[in-house]
């Protein structure tokens, strides 16, 4: 069996330590603040996550760019030349054109490397939801699963990857077109905190509105209680927009109520954070449905 490489993008929001442990390759996405471009490296070499969120809190806006076809070609080709196949697990096509860029690159290279396998899978996931899908895939590769079976596993299980978010500042949802200006103003006045999820098409969708921060966090726990598959056997992920204390509050609730096996936590990186803003908290787990 030919060796293969699992590739994903930095929107997985995985720690550098976990990336090393899983032996995966991560391609960074680009974001721009005040005319200066940065790459979202998991080791924070371009900008620290803390500094990024400080910029947002001080009123700076961040915009993001998809990964283009040339970047994928440059990344994929040396791996193919080395005689290895590729499984790329992509950021949701419902949120970015990155997946389409990877498909074009794969098509171009497959005509040149006819004996190689280049599989691109649309995760329909984001942040550490995408990361959790990659985490499971990488562990199955370590257990000896071949590339064809693993591609099928990812396709067959990605819609069981549940994403639940709550945001603290409605301004960023308004700026991203997910909330009207009027709704943002009224919601802020009434201390409304929306609870959102990523649906089966990979879009970020508001599901519930609650009043107050703690109620929005406990609402995510209730969603997990409804759908989680054997939570006591699961490693779950929690990501946060520079609000560690509240993320730990959620983690403690999950441990207390559901006795999960393990919880891994990290920042929401600058690409996702550009659209969700400071104070966002997200919960990811395997469930019966999204």
Describe this entry's structure for a reader.
With 290 residues, this protein is an alpha/beta fold. The chain has helices spanning 16-22, 49-57, 69-81, 98-112, 127-142, 147-157, 170-175, 181-189, 213-227, 244-258, 270-276; strands spanning 4-9, 25-27, 30-33, 36-39, 62-65, 85-90, 118-122, 161-166, 192-198, 204-211, 235-240, 262-267, 281-286. Helix content is 42%, strand content 24%. The chain contains eleven helices and 13 strands.
Features:
290 residues; alpha/beta; 6-stranded mixed beta sheet; 4-stranded parallel beta sheet; 13 strands; 42% helix; globular
Summarize the structure.
By secondary structure, this protein is an alpha/beta fold. It has helices spanning 16-22, 49-57, 69-81, 98-112, 127-142, 147-157, 170-175, 181-189, 213-227, 244-258, 270-276; strands at residues 4-9, 25-27, 30-33, 36-39, 62-65, 85-90, 118-122, 161-166, 192-198, 204-211, 235-240, 262-267, 281-286. The chain has eleven helices and 13 strands.
């Amino acid at each position: 069996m030919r060796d293969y490489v699992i590739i994903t993008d930095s929107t997985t929001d995985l720690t550098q330590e976990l990336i090393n442990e899983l032996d995966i390759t991560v391609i960074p996405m680009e974001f721009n603040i005040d005319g200066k471009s940065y790459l979202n490296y998991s080791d924070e070499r371009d900008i620290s996550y803390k500094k990024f969120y400080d910029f947002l809190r001080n009123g700076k806006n961040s915009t993001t760019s998809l990964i283009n076809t040339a970047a994928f070609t440059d990344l994929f080709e040396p791996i193919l030349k080395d005689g290895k196949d590729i499984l790329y697990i992509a950021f949701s096509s419902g949120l970015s054109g990155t997946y389409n860029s990877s498909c074009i690159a794969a098509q171009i290279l497959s005509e040149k490397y006819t004996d190689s396998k280049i599989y691109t899978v649309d995760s329909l996931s984001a942040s550490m939801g995408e990361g959790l899908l990659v985490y499971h895939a990488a562990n199955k590769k370590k257990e000896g699963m071949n590339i064809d079976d693993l591609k099928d596993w990812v396709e067959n299980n990605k819609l069981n990857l549940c994403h639940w978010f709550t945001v603290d500042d409605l301004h960023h949802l308004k700026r991203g077109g997910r909330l009207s200006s009027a709704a943002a103003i009224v919601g802020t006045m009434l201390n409304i905190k929306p609870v959102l999820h990523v649906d089966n098409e990979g879009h970020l969708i508001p599901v519930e509105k609650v009043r107050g921060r703690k109620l929005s966090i406990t609402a995510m726990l209730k969603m997990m209680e409804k759908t989680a598959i054997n939570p006591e056997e699961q490693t779950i992920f929690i990501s946060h927009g520079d609000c560690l204390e509240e993320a730990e509050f959620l983690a403690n609730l999950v441990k207390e109520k559901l006795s999960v096996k393990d919880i891994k936590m990290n920042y929401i990186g600058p690409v996702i954070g550009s659209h969700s803003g400071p104070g966002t908290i997200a919960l990811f787990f395997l469930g019966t449905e999204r």
